Amino acid sequence: MSRAFTKEIDERPEEVLPRPVSVHPNCVTSNGLTQIERALEKYQAAHRAAISKENKTAIELTAREIIYWSARKNAAVLMPEISKLDQVKFGTTVTVKRNDGRVQTFRIVGEDEAEPSANTISYVSPFAQAVMGKSVGDRVEIAGEDSKILAIR
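RESULT FIELD:
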């Protein structure tokens, strides 16, 4: 029988598990909060579209995302903008010189906003934990290596 005459079966996982939510406080920058709100809107729109098409798989998957992003939005703690740049804090950008000579710059942001390829890292990452509270000129251990803080902005 030709495939054209068979009813397509909804391809779906046996069970759609909820996305795990971090145990850490959901500290966010204003940009991070905007990203969360946009993600929630996107999945709400996708969920409505899935319902209209009666796509059970998409309904379940988008519902899971709505639950996750709603929880992240409800738990969001908007952190104040940093005015004094004497120490590395949430929201600052820090430049370090690694022991091997590499110079790296990262902005410390919330977990959902973090994107290392865009030079943003989560405040709960080992790198951020190593530099938080430190000042320009301080030495820190990152990944078992000595590093020096060159700049904070």
